[in-house]
Amino acid sequence: MTWVVRFFAAVSLSLSMLVSAPASARVEKITVHGKSLEGNLEGNSADRTVLVLLPPSYDTAKARRYPVLYFLHGYNSQAVGTVEWTKMEQRQLAAMKATGREFIVVAPDTDTLMSGSMYSDSPTVGNFEEFVTRDLIAYIDSHYRTVAKRESRGLFGHSMGGYGTLRIAMHHPELFRAIYALDPCCLLPRQITAEESRKYEGLTPDQVAKGDFGIRTTYAVAAAWSPDPNKPPFYADLPTNNGVLDPLVIAEWYANAPTAMVPQFLPALKSLTAIGMETGSKDFVKTDVEAMHAQLLKFGIKHDWYFHDGDHGSKVSEDLEKIVFPFFVKHLVFPGQK
After folding, report:
1. pLDDT at 12 (0 to 100)
2. pLDDT in tens, 68-117
3. What is the pLDDT of residue 338?
4. pLDDT band at 25 (very low <50, low <70, confident <90, very high)
5. Is the pTM of this model over 0.85?
6. Looking at residue 194, what is its pLDDT?
7. How far apart are CA 113 and CA 121, in angstroms?
């Protein structure tokens, strides 16, 4: 896990790098206001940076409309940095050239005070699931020439974004035809002992801000999954109260685990045209992803499964071009396609 922090902390991106695309394509960096995020207790901005990766013909084929792929970034990262380190724009262009199909990619920034929204709805963090499914899609469909239909809309993400992909698809299958989760985290119920949780009690905001990966992710999860509007300064319930495990909080955390959600959302999962998922032999989330794979098999949910020889980030860029984008080209409906 410490590698993940170092990996994303090392990412830096200048705007000049972002807009260095070929003249035939364009990346727009815009701001989308999320009404769903207004009034959150952490003070996370309701105005979110969003990158829109437009295909080469967008500025010349004025009557043409395009399918849209929504990308969700991971924990302790932002949309701009993730698009850069994955070389997403270059991978999109290469995949479009190889397949002969053009599409738009939209990457919203969902960074928060605790470095991750978990793509969940919470009065503490803000309703980030609702932001993606209501505010963002509505804005993109009203400001860009999209094919504003489920059949032409896909969702994919990496790490926490892979978690968000599976979560959102189960809750909102009416919005997406196909989904793909790259190295998704947090799929199994989060395990924590009373001894471990006890050491997180009583920390100050400054101590949490300077804390290690375990401290920050615990508080991020608590803010997203066990919010408490009456408990400043974090407005969240930890798994222990005075050193004793709180079964209600544990239940709240378990209820947000996609592996546990599968039996409740079988119709939603079966309604998706295509589900893709991958992990690596050296990935720290491998156990979670393999458990989700087993759950889908158990309940007869068809899905593409890819197991690579890599770690949590080593294959993402390559797989976008070779696997993920072609996956969506295969399963989404393009204009003029029967």
Report:
1. 37
2. 999 999 999 999 999 999 999 999 999 999 999 999 999 999 999 999 99
3. 53
4. confident
5. yes
6. 87
7. 15
User: Of 37, 113, 168, 95, nearest to 328 (Cα)?
Assistant: 95
Mean pLDDT, range 177-192, rounded to an integer: 96
**Hunting for tokens 């790490």 — which residue is that?**
159
Mutual angle of helices 213-225 and 247-255, in 10-degree steps: 90
Q: Which residue has the higher pLDDT, 4 or 279?
A: 279
**Domains of the chain as residue ranges with CATH:** 2-188+265-331 (3.40.50.1820), 194-252 (no CATH)
Strand order, beta sheet including 274-280: 26-33, 47-54, 104-108, 68-72, 153-158, 178-182, 274-280, 304-308
Asked if 239 and 246 count as a contact pair (C-beta separation under 8 A), the reply is yes
Backbone angles phi, psi at 288, to 5 degrees: -60, -45
2-9 vs 213-225: helix crossing angle, rounded to 10: 90
Q: Say what the pLDDT of residue 18 is.
A: 39
- Alpha-carbon dihedral sign for residues 18, 33, 64, 91: positive
Amino acid at 152: S
Q: 71 to each of 222, 244, 297, 299, 306, how far by Cα in Å?
A: 24, 39, 25, 27, 19
Token digits of residue 58: 């967008």
Q: What's the CA gap between 308 and 328, in Å, rounded?
A: 19
CB atoms within 10 A of CB 201: 12
Cβ–Cβ < 8 Å for 213, 220: no
Rg (CA), the chain: 19
